[in-house]
Q: What sequence folds into this?
């Protein structure tokens, strides 16, 4: 696909520069949506995430959610689309990392900024895309919150680095800004 027309588009409350892609996708998407839409590619990688660029959750939290469902569902991490699934944590330990820096491996540091607000996408089977379980109800059933169902945490990259499966994870105090 070629990109031609430069545009400024709003994504999750912020403006992102991009280019309208030419090809059959825009027409196919317009037909599906029942209105005219255009497919736009961001000029800068990483600009099209929904809230923050990094999402992480612990395997213990996923296991706890499965238990809370009465084992009606075994929750796969793909349902929550995290960048990282951490092992060796207590259930929802990641909630306590807000404001902290997480180091994964020798170089990567992530500043943990917010709890991850979950949406209806988590109610869809990651293999079929079909709604199969009321994930949000299960989360709110044991983690009641009047605002939303939170599960996992969001962060930003404070220092880039390469990570591999099995790398050590540690928490560091957040750096204060002057």
A:
């Amino acid at each position: 696909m070629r990109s031609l027309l430069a545009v400024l588009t709003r994504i999750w409350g912020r403006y992102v520069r991009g280019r309208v892609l030419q090809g059959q996708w825009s027409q196919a998407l317009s037909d599906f949506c029942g209105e005219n839409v255009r497919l736009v590619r961001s000029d800068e990688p990483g600009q099209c995430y929904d809230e923050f660029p990094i999402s992480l959750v612990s395997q213990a939290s996923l296991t706890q959610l499965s238990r809370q469902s009465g084992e009606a569902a075994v929750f796969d991490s793909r349902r929550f689309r995290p960048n990282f699934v951490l092992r060796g944590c207590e259930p929802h330990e990641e909630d306590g990392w807000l404001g902290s820096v997480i180091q994964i491996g020798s170089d990567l540091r992530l500043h943990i900024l917010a709890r991850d607000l979950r949406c209806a996408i988590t109610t869809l089977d990651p293999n079929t895309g079909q709604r199969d379980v009321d994930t949000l109800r299960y989360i709110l059933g044991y983690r009641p919150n009047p605002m939303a169902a939170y599960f996992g945490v969001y962060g930003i990259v404070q220092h880039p680095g390469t990570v591999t499966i099995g790398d050590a994870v540690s928490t560091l105090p957040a750096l204060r800004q002057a």
Summary: The two ends are 46 Å apart (CA to CA).
